[in-house]
Structures are given as structure tokens and as C-alpha cells.
What we know:
- This protein is an alpha/beta fold.
- The mean pLDDT is about 95.
- The protein contains 13 helices and 9 strands.
- The strands form 2 sheets. A 5-stranded parallel sheet has the order 7-6-5-8-9, covered by helices on one side. Strands 2-1-3-4 form a 4-stranded parallel sheet, sandwiched between helices.
- The structure holds N-carbamoyl-L-aspartate.
- N-carbamoyl-L-aspartate (NCD) binds near residues 142 and 238.
- The site of N-carbamoyl-L-aspartate (NCD) has 12 residues, from helix 2.
Amino acid sequence: MARHFVRTQDLSREDLDRILFHARNIEAKILAGNKKKLKRRLKGKTVTIVFWEASTRTAQSFIAAAQLLGATVNFTADASVTSSAAKGETFEHTIRMLASYHPDVLVIRHKEMGRLAEAARIIDHFGHNTRVVNAGDGPGQHPTQALLDLYTIQQKLGRVGHIRIMMGGDLLNGRTVRSLAYLLSKYKDVEIVFAAPEELQISVDILEHLTETGVKWSQVGENFRQQLPRMHAVYWTRLQTERIADTALRERLQMVQKEKFCIGVDELGIMQADSILMHPLPINSQLREISSEAERDYRCVMIQQAANGLWVRAALLDILVNGWPNY
Length: 327
Ligand code: NCD
């Protein structure tokens, strides 16, 4: 495993198995009311969390995870307004300053792709010990989301390999699907169907990676329903309106998403009885890419999916600071 956690393709299959195993262990301990020992794991350590972009789940679960392990937590929300970036400070200066207060882990979310890799380079260049964790970099990646997605697939389906999964919605601007696709490529016999309007299809770098790693993939448009009965998991995402600057294009895509790319009771009706419906959240309340009726279906696991973020983020923080646990 790399020093920093910036991209999912840096994890080996063994790393992944160990992180998920540790996360399951943390979950079991907490559910058994066994908090005390965990509280010592990050005692005396500091986790600094700085977000340049909106968040509910990721920010709160990182805070909760760090506190669960006994760390001291600093959190800056809306950094583009509340940090010195608003006074014209460069990203490099901000990162150097944050690192100079010696946090053990620096968790960052940024609007721009590539900023997390840059933060990691800056920290390494100036010799800081801080570990960087990517909590989302624009349309780039969201690696800890992919960990919790995988954890949920394993939990609900009892396996990650040997599955057929459809990933739908805004695959071009959404980062969760990109990170998850890299992780799924580490398992055997995975088939991915990418369902999106042509303008929002998954980019070629992911498709090339999947081809290289032997993952069977295909792309479908508004006829995606034909493939739904074959799927073990359906992973839906919202239109990333904040990343589409052109108003006319944005409005057209909103119409397309609303009219042609929603999951409702009809779609669930043709899905397998033991399949699952996932979503990284938030659901857009205007476009309703998953309808409120569909949301109440027993196969819709998104709340638990988000809740699993606590276990995987705690496991990751622990491993980054303390190394691999001895089991
Ligand atoms: C996702 C994100 O930030 O990429 N949210 C999350 O962290 N669960 C998905 C999204 O914003 O659409």
C-alpha cells in the first residue's frame, strides 16, 4: 500500500482484503459494545480534515471514525471560503501550512481533479510525515467511497467476485464509479454494464484499464432496462450538475436523466429478488434518479451503504497510522 491513499489503483488485492477484514472487525467490536480498546488506537494522534467541496456523509463519517479511535480531530468545511484560499493563497502554501502543524493524517476533498496527488507530492517533497487521504477530487476519484461500496457488496451479496453490476447515471463527472471500477477489476469474473446517456458515459481510461485486467464490460443507453434482470447489483448515481458549466447542456441532461435514466418501481420489478440497489448519495431531490417508492424497496441498501463508511474509514485511518494489524 502506498504512503498516501489517493487512488484506488494503488491498492493490491491483498491490501484490499486486509482493509475490509479490519473494517469488519471494527464493526463487530462496536456492535458488541466493545469501544474501549478501539479508543486507544489513535490516542495522541491528530486527524485534520479540510473540505473545499460540500459533504455530509464523507465529512461526518471521517470525523466519527477518527473519534472512535480516540484521535483529536480538526475539521474545516467550505475551505474555499473559510481558508486563506479566499485571500488568494496558493494550494501549495495551504498544504504546507496544514502539514507543518504535524497532523498524522490529512483528509482532503477538493473541487479539482489531481489536487490530492499534488497535495501528496507537496507533503513528500517537504519531508512531512503526514499521510494524505483523498475524500474526493473533482471528477477524479473517491477512493474511500469505493471501499465502502465494496464492503457493502461483500456484506449484501456474500462475495465481490462473480458478479454482474450495472453502474448508471453521470459516469463522466461522477468519481465514485471510477474508483469502484478500479477496485472491482481486482476480483475474478466481474462484468460491468455502464448505463448512461452518450454525453455522460464512462471515460476511456477506465475502459482501457478494465480491458487490460480482463473485466468484461459494455455500455448501454436508455435501453438499459433490457440488462437489469441479469444484474446482481445496480449502482446508480446523480447528475453532477455542479460540474456542468454550460447551462443549455446542463438543462438538457437534466431532462434526459429525469425522463430516461431513473430507477423506479418498474425497474425494481424486473430486477432479481436477491439483487441490490446502491447509490453513493446524495439523491437529487428534483431529478429523483431513484424514486421515493423505489427507495423503500428492501433491495435498496444505500443508507446502510453510507453507514458502512464509518467502519472502512476507521480501518483505513488505523492502518495508515499504525500499520497493518496483527490478526
Ligand atoms: C459522492 C461524491 O461526493 O462524489 N458523495 C459521497 O461522498 N457519498 C457522490 C455525489 O456527490 O454524487
